[in-house]
Amino acid sequence: xxxxxxxxxxxxxxxxxxxxxxxxxxxxxxxxxxxxxxxxxxxxxxxxxxxxxxxxxxxxxxxxxxxxxxxxxxxxxxxxxxxxxxxxxxxxxxxxxxxxxxxxxxxxxxxxxxxxxxxxxxxxxxxxxxxxxxxxxxxxxxxxxxxxxxxxxxxxxxxxxxxxxxxxxxxxxxxxxxxxxxxxxxxxxxxxxxxxxxxxxxxxxxxxxxxxxxxxxxxxxxxxxxxxxxxxxxxxxxxxxxx
Length: 243
What we know:
- The chain is mainly α.
- The protein folds into 2 domains: 1-58, no CATH class; 64-242.
- The protein has 9 helices and no strands.
- The protein is globular and about 65 Å long.
- The protein starts with a helix and ends with a helix.
- Residues 75-239 form the RiboL-PSP-HEPN domain.
- It comes from Tolumonas osonensis.
């Protein structure tokens, strides 16, 4: 399913324009092609029911630099997947599978970089807004930098613990979107992170004459990349409200 087909499918399933726009934020479609039906509905509602009620305006999220960097870096994963599709003939060449494994590694690398950059941005924001104790600011920053050196694989526990430690925020509470709840998101991230670790440290390259299951199928990889995009977007929205 192409990115456009995915958006059309969301529309057919009854998702709101804001949810479709969220999908577009991860690169599924240009923003300018998405109509704001919610605004039209509000105008119709105010005409039909002329009550003295103030329409609640959604606060426009200001995306972090970390999010902008993620949108760019995740393209490494999607382009590797596209390249796999382009050479995946019948029968596929023996070296095609390495593209899928590399794509998953790059997708997790993009997530890891986003978490590191996003928490650094948040720390800088807090330090900038508090000039009372320079020594405390310095300790806070140096401690975070030290912990980030050993952050590595972005598993659920690692992400949760570092945000709790420095901001007293359970960022996993914001991991909710569409039909995904917090527990499902946490479980799925751990599965993807483990699969990435197995590929990176055990290679899982098929041996000649020894057929074995693919480390990650094409369908699984596409779902993993989309999951990571949704996870980052949910994290971005949550932190925008909390910090």
